[in-house]
Each structure stands twice: as C-alpha cells, then as structure tokens.
Amino acid sequence: MSDPEYIGRIARSIAPCGLVCALCGKPSCKGCRESTDAELSCLCRQRTCCREKGFSGCWECPLFPCGEGMFSSARSSSRRLTAFVRCVREDGADALASYLAANEAQGLLYHRDTVHFTGDYDISEDEAEILRLLREGPKP
C-alpha cells in the first residue's frame, strides 16, 4: 500500500516508545501523541521521559534502549518496540510507516489479536529478525 495519506497518518501516530497508535485498534483511544494526560489510562515511562528531555521519541535518546518501562525485558512486546524505535532512529518515521503499510498489503498485521494486542511482529524475540521483517517483508 502506498497511499501517502495513510502512511502519513501512521508516521504521525508513532508513540515515543515505538507503539504505532494508528494501528492499535482501540477505537476509544486517540493515541499517545494526540491524547491529553487526563485522556490516557496510562502514563508510560517513555512518554514522560521524552517530554522531560524534549525528545519526540526514544529514537533521539542516547540512552536507548534504557531497559525501563516499555523496554523492560519482562514485557513481551519489548523486542518489537526496540526494533520499531531502532527503525525510526536508522530509517525515519516515514520509512517505518511505509514498511508497515507495504507489509500490511502483503498480509502482515501489526495486531491480529485485538485482545492481547499482538501481531506478526511479535512472533520473534530477535530484534534483528523483526527489523528484517519490517524492511523486507515476508519471505517468499
């Protein structure tokens, strides 16, 4: 999918921690970037830290990955998030959004399970494999 409007919406929705709010699937949530503190049910460590440091996201922080909050090894989604943040750091938010849209057109989904919020990028615990999947899409 190469719809510039869709790709732009994805890029603008990337949270400081690497979550992609536009693809979340929670209809009542506007996402981390567009919600006020009062509207969010959680205030994550990464959002607060980035605000304090004046960063748009963890991709701008020299301490990334810090191992705190969303990047805690106890979180099942931590490898996906570190891969997404690393992708933004290395390739840019627009590139990550383009990868996600192109992969979606090939059947890879950010979230397949809207209860546990897991998808095709959660299958691997290997950050390098997740980055490869993002950049190259599914293997033929």
Short description:
This protein has 140 residues and is mainly alpha-helical. Helices cover 39% and strands 0% of the residues. 34% of the residues are buried.
Q: Keywords, please?
A:
140 residues; 0% strand
Number of helices: 5
The averaged pLDDT comes out at 86
Helix/strand order: HHHHH
Could you tell me the radius of gyration in angstroms?
A: 14 Å
What structural class results from the helix and strand content?
mainly alpha
Low-confidence spans: pLDDT under 50, at least 5 residues? none
- Please count the beta strands (DSSP E, at least 2 residues each): 0
Largest sheet: none
- Per the principal axes of the C-alpha atoms, what is the gross shape? globular
* Strand composition percent: under 5%
> How widely separated are the two ends?
18 Å
Percent helix, as a range, is 25-40%
Write a structural description:
The model has no long low-confidence stretch (mean pLDDT 86). The protein contains five helices and no strands. By secondary structure, it is mainly α. Helix 1 packs across helix 4, helix 3 crosses helix 4 and helix 4 crosses helix 5. The longest helix has 14 residues.
Q: How are the elements arranged and paired?
A:
Blueprint: H1 4-12, H2 45-53, H3 78-91, H4 93-105, H5 127-136
Helix pairs in contact: 1-4, 3-4, 3-5, 4-5
